[in-house]
Amino acid sequence: MEAIDFNNEEIAEFYGIIGKNVAKIRKEKGVSQLELTLAMGYNSSGLVSQAELTLNKKHFNIEHLHKISKLLKVDICEFFRPIGI
Fold first, then answer.
1. Cβ–Cβ < 8 Å for 78, 20
2. Residue ranges of the domains in the chain?
3. What pTM does this model have?
4. CA nearest 43: which of 53, 33, 56?
5. What percent of the chain has pLDDT over 90?
6. CA 65 to chain centroid
7. pLDDT of residue 6
8. Architecture category of domain 9-80 in CATH
9. Mean of the pLDDT values across residues 56-80?
10. Euclidean distance between CA atoms 41 and 64, whole angstroms
């Protein structure tokens, strides 16, 4: 197997897709950032708000996505779909 060189821009774009999808689905379900954060077991909406916008290089990890998918009752794969599909 050949190694692939992933550039930072490509990775940032990938995290951006995930963040936008989480925000879109969360809003469709009528859940605020604070409600989601508290349900995930955190005390501040900073994690969700920053990860949705990928501010300060913050992003969701697989544990976050698992919890969010369960809380929003959506297949985790929905977070990885290209925007607009």
1. no
2. 9-80
3. 0.91
4. 33
5. 82
6. 6
7. 84
8. Orthogonal Bundle (1.10)
9. 97
10. 10
Q: b/e map of 63-81 (b: 16 or more CB within 10 Å)?
A: ebbebbbeebebeeeebee
Do 82 and 17 contact (CB within 8 A), yes or no? yes
Q: What is the per-residue pLDDT for 83?
A: 82
Three-state SS string over the chain comes to CCCCCCCHHHHHHHHHHHHHHHHHHHHHCCCCHHHHHHHHCCCCCHHHHHHHHCHHHCCCCHHHHHHHHHHHCCCHHHHHCCCCC
**Token pair for residue 23?**
């925000």
Which residue type is seen at 46?
A: G
Confidence of residue 7 (pLDDT cuts 50, 70, 90): confident
State the chain's mean pLDDT as an integer: 94
Q: Which amino acid is at 83?
A: I
Asked whether the predicted pLDDT for residue 85 surpasses 70, the reply is no
54 contacts 16 by C-beta, under 8 angstroms: yes
* Residue 83 token pair: 């925007």
